[in-house]
Amino acid sequence: MTMVGAGDWAASEYDRSAGYVSRLGEDVVDLLDPRLGERVLDLGCGTGDLSAELSSRGAEVLGVDLSPEMVSRSAEKYPALRFEAGDARSLGLRPESFDAVFSNATLHWIKEASKAIRAVRRVLRPGGRFVAELGGRGNVRTIERAIEEALAERVISSADRNPWYFPSLAEYAGLLEEAGFEVRYAVLFDRPTPLGEEGIEGWLRVFAGSFFEGLSEEERGEITERVVEKARPGLSGEDGLFADYRRLRVSAVKV
Ligand code: BEZ
Question: Nearest CA to 65 among 91, 86, 93?
Answer without folding.
Answer: 86
